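Note to self: keep these together.
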Amino acid sequence: MPSESVSDKLRPMQGGANQTIKVVLVEDDTSFHASVLAAVAVADDVVMQTAVATLAEGLALLEGAAADVLIADLGLPDGSGIEMIRAAKRVWPRCEVIVATVFGDEDKVLSAIEAGASGYLLKDAMPVSLVGEIRSVHAGGSPVSPMVARQLLRRLQPGSPNHTADSDSADAELSSREVQVLERMALGYTMQETAEFLGVAMSTVQTYVRRIYQKLGVRSKVGAIDAGYKRGLLQGR
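Structure:
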């Protein structure tokens, strides 16, 4: 469990609710815990509301003020982070959830997404990019580590035993640029990488992503990619 000295590093929120992204961390790895606090501490628009180390402590937080973003590990000392995600989405429905874990196997990824996670990141790719990922998920994105994205794409490809074909090729009414963004999502590129590729601001890409979700009737990156394959917008790779 993190020491009191680590918890003391939590800086108080500044400004109004519309000026900052309030984050809650449920994580028992003291080294990663401290790294997340350090990354958030230098961001002007992201603040750590609370950080705890166990499932029980995390569930108790749901009785208080809602966070904008929850970062949760799956392997907590007293239970599964999946339970934390389900409870958070039930009590704080507008809170976005990022899974930060060492577990990249398909079952855990799918369980987390089904529970309500909007992002799934492996710890070896964090926390250097964490603040950007927090901003991304809060803006409507679904950050997923490339290795996890590739694994999910293999599951969705035609020919996979888990792929479900859809004979209905109804026009999803995505613009050509939105299809481009969807294709980049399917290839595992981040929003920043897509913005650089298209020569636009990342906020523009975030707008495209929100429109894609709305038009396809989905709430996550994985859902958008799945719908893209089913509707013929994406080709099997």
